[in-house]
Amino acid sequence: MSAGTVAGTVGAVLASLGVDTAFGVVGSGNFHVTNALVARGVRFVAARHEGGAATMADAHARMTGRVGVLSVHQGPGLTNALTGVTEAAKSRTPLVVLAGEVTAPRSNFFVDQAALAAAVGAVPMRVDSAPDAAALTAEAFRVARDGRRTVLLNLPLEVQALPVSGPSGDGDREAGPVRAAGAGGSAGLAGRTGEARPLPAGPDREEAARLAEILAGARRPVFVAGRGARTARRELEDLADLTGALLATSAVAKGLFRGSPWDLDVSGGFASPLAAELIRDADVVVGWGCALNMWTTRHGTLVGPDAVVVQVDLDPEALGAHRPVHLGVTGDVARTARAVADLLGDGTAARPAPGAPGATGATGGERGGTGAVPDGAGTGVVPDGAGTGAVPDGAGTGAAPGRAGYRSEALALRIAREVRWRDVPYADESGDGRIDPRTLTIALDDLLPAERVVCPDSGNFMGYPAMFMDVPDEGGFCFTQAFQSIGLGLATAIGAALARPDRLAVAALGDGGALMGVSELETVVRLGLRMVVVVYDDEAYGAEVHHFGPDGHPLDTVVFPPADIAGIARGFGFEAVTVRAPGDLAAVARWLDGPRERPLLVHAMVTRARGAWWLEEAFRGH
């Protein structure tokens, strides 16, 4: 099929728009469009399963900040990919899914692909004719990029071979309205009329002024940055310096403020005891590009009853979606933070407005609830006697004169000493041929290079790599957990490794998720990725064991006999080591010191007497 066909045009347009990597599994229905991408210089990464390919594309997009591309066969190719596509859609990952499509209902391959996409939150579109192929492909790309959406671009088989007259790579020409395909195709960015609805970038001036006034009156502000803030560190730190705010993130933005003396790390279920204490005592909590959902707020328990809650997000529909907020600000995080800092810097917001912390006669903001904090409430977060000893370098309050906010030298010292999970004392439960997962993870944190990308799967174990393994910045943690599926961790690490070849990718998996995605071990070896795969093996679906076991339920369906996962990895071409005690990790050190010619799998037999403490909280969300 030549470049002058619809399939050729789709590939050429995407390449012209800057796509340089695509993932997928090739079948007859996506053979030509995939080859068209390759012909235009796009690297195609072949996975062993469409589910893995989808998650690789998702992770690659997250780590590069560019639109990802996935190519799959019609029917089963798309349904195989659906869990990964759902994760991407829920995470608002900019991703274009190219799928062959049969339109004859009697075909074995037929399924309502548009309805499938809409059901999981993706935007379905279809190329119905040759003249529209270039414009619709460009528009699918723009919807993904500008609306932060996962887009399914259906390519009917009978249309792919149609000839296209004129240039086939014209991705810069003006695209027409979004052609939504099927029910739900106009949801989100595409409005009910089918036309693209651009998201605003700058904040409303009145909303920015209201936020500035709230922060001007705040005594203990905390910023919680989410995925939408991953490129706004400088702007948020500048504003935090003006207001004396402490800095935290949602899980997906872990590492964003690494190196700041005011970094509390993750807010939510993974928060350390000190981080949880300080967030809970805040009088103002501002979510920046952050959903403020039950995970980030620990089902609301991290937000004090008198705290004023503000949410900043590009999407107005996200404001107050998970919990009431006193003020919702629609706008890009960096631009909003800059606008608010300008207002504070020129003194415009010197006096608190009604409803701001410290104001009298407060009535609350636009989105429900009173927000006044009683005088003197929540003081004394640093116990008497704390703060002796040296203060970390650079840990002055950093706040503008008169706005020390939450910051003090004593608190900086306490954060430096206590905020990391590895600084929280615990009783090592290693023994009887099994290693405590905390001991394992702390040891790996010490051994592995600092320049890393940690990619946890889901399961009973997942808090250990998330809480005990440090990352260098927001690009050091890739967390594909919006759908809470197990089995995505290995593919996530592959996508991250390809996006960041300068860093060591670390896949952290449970035994259940590892065996679900085991076919992609071959992909790691074939691609020559020098990555580390850590399997926390409790020979069970541990989350279910510890959730249902205490009530006396039978557990035969969720426990398994031993599996030689290290042997399986060697069969795929990995180096592998089984770890039952801390001394066994010497083999990891030897691999790190050697040529690393093959990837390494660490099969860790972890203790299993108890569930992770955060697991009970997680099950509350079911």
Key descriptive features of the protein:
622 residues, alpha/beta, six-stranded parallel beta sheet, 17 strands
Structural class: alpha/beta
Estimate what percentage of residues fall within beta strands. 5-15%
Largest sheet: 6 strands, parallel
Distance between the terminal alpha carbons, to the nearest Å? Answer: 49 Å
Number of H- or I-type helical stretches:
21
Q: Please state how the strands of the largest beta sheet are arranged side by side.
A: 2-1-3-4-6-5
Rounded to an integer in angstroms, the radius of gyration calculated over CA atoms is: 25 Å
Find the count of extended strands (DSSP E, 2+ residues): 17
Share of helical residues: 25-40%
Unreliable residue stretches: 169-197, 351-394
Mean pLDDT: 87
Would you mind describing this structure in some detail?
The protein is α/β, with parallel strands linked by helices and 622 residues long. 32% of the residues lie in helices and 14% in strands. It has 21 helices and 17 strands. The strands form three sheets. A six-stranded parallel beta sheet has the order 2-1-3-4-6-5, sandwiched between helices. A six-stranded parallel beta sheet has the order 9-8-7-10-11-12, sandwiched between helices. A five-stranded parallel beta sheet has the order 13-14-15-17-16, sandwiched between helices. Helix 9 links the parallel strand 7 and strand 8. The longest helix is centred in the N-terminal third of the chain and has 15 residues. The chain is globular and about 70 Å long. It starts with 5 loop residues before the first helix and ends with a helix. About 12% of the residues have low confidence.
